[in-house]
């Protein structure tokens, strides 16, 4: 039985693994990338969409085939049920997606510590409480710094009211410390943002204050026109109406009138030819009078 025809038909279903290129492509096996600098057929690229897609697909297949042929020549490692190829180090340097982050400016404490050569020593989170005989967090819930839980007895200072609640006074003092630290943290953030923008912190606060003043002017019906001016308040810049000169040439006047007629004829409502809302209010007002 002759099966030559069947074998040839079966063989024709598969593409050959041999790919010929006039210029050998540059293969980066570490990145699994192939760079082909050979010329493309412009006639096929300008042909119909089906021909163009088939041509591009064939180019992609041949480039992938060249890459796979090189992968089979790499040293391999055999596992229980798989075979792995050891890829070499990548040669292609990819650009960064985002710019290199700028160095964060030092806070006031970091500047002071750098001048005084104070080194930051990392402390353990847990501290042994000798009175309770157990390990407790240094800060936070049930921490050793929590003044609300200990001590259970407080001495009344000599210059304080003997009937005052010293526990409440300690809680208020702790709350004031937290608020002070929060304000310092916010100040450090503002100084860092100002330094990133190349401004001084005082100049940035001044600009923010000026923006707040301008925004507050919009809360009145006159948009701050009749409000009292503050000392050193900047003048708000707004749009000024531009009036055409009363005396002009005949050609300019004719051009202007023809422009208005063309806009009205085309129904151009985006131009400042007719105030549609004002006209609608006038029509409604006239209807109410007739009723």
Task: Report on the architecture of this protein.
This protein is mainly alpha-helical. It has eight helices and six strands, in the order αββααββαββαααα. The protein has a two-stranded antiparallel ribbon with strand order 1-2. A two-stranded antiparallel sheet has the order 3-4. The longest helix is centred in the middle third of the chain and has 31 residues, at 166-196.
Strand content: 5-15%
Total number of helical segments? 8
Instruction: Give, in order, the helices and strands.
Output: HEEHHEEHEEHHHH
Mean pLDDT figure: 81
Principal-axis shape: flat
Q: What is the straight-line distance between the termini?
A: 106 Å
Radius of gyration: 40 Å
Percent of residues in helices: 40-55%
Largest sheet composition: 2 strands, antiparallel
Structural class of the secondary elements?
A: mainly alpha
Low-pLDDT ranges:
none
Oligomer description: single chain
Indicate the topology.
Elements: H1 4-12, E1 26-28, E2 33-35, H2 42-45, H3 49-71, E3 76-78, E4 83-85, H4 108-116, E5 126-129, E6 134-137, H5 166-196, H6 201-217, H7 250-266, H8 276-290
Antiparallel strand pairs: 1-2, 3-4, 5-6
Short description:
The protein is mostly helical and 291 residues long.
Note the main attributes of this structure:
two-stranded antiparallel ribbon; 7% strand; 291 residues; 8 helices; 43% helix; mainly alpha
